Amino acid sequence: MNAAPLPPVKLGVLISGEGTNLQAIIDAIAGGDLRAEIRLVISNKASAGGLERARRHGISVMTIDHRGYANRRDFDHALAEALQSHDVELVVCAGFMRLLSPVMIDAFRGRIMNIHPALCPAFPGVNAVRQALAYGARFTGCTVFFVTAGVDDGPIIVQAVVPVLQDDDEAALAARIHAEEHRIYPLAIRLYQERRLEIDGRIVRIRDYGHSAASGTLVNPRLD
Ligand code: GAR
After folding, report:
1. Mean of the per-residue pLDDT values for the chain?
2. pTM tops 0.85
3. What is the DSSP code (8-state) at residue 140?
């Protein structure tokens, strides 16, 4: 007898900008690749393009402008209250350009994900793509991780590697990283929905990991 399928995970998505990762999550749900329901999208900026994407799909949206709050904690109280009142289980930061305080981290302990356009722990903070180019890295990529109090340094769930090409400028490299982000964020959420993620200190263990993981070594430039 097959076990009953696990229920869809109830998401609250936090954005500040274009929302292409939000779109990838919406598409993964619509395409049947992810059992999730987006209960609410919150932006700290009324002009964020992602709000329109959410509206188009009939998703509840809210703008909570950080400038209306005296400090980070008060802003985070407003965020937590909105998310809790929409029965959100997992908070997904998708280009949300605010650091979260202990107020949010305690309210959703182990239940906040973020994505960063670099291979953490390299190049944390802003302009990660520019940092990788300026450093001369041969590889960069993107990381989905559980949010902790530090900057882009929480337990890592999924990473994708993107080679840096000799003629890359920031826009070209960012576009290739973005394409990978759109693949790994829905995957990380799916692993959560399937209850396969276990946080053990700063290590995330994946149940039924199997032997399907990429095991090839990447070299850039090619050796041959
Ligand atoms: C993404 O590239 C994400 O990795 C980055 O913001 C972009 C948002 O794009 N986040 C950070 O830099 C966080 N440190 P989107 O609005 O099109 O999803």
Report:
1. 95
2. yes
3. E
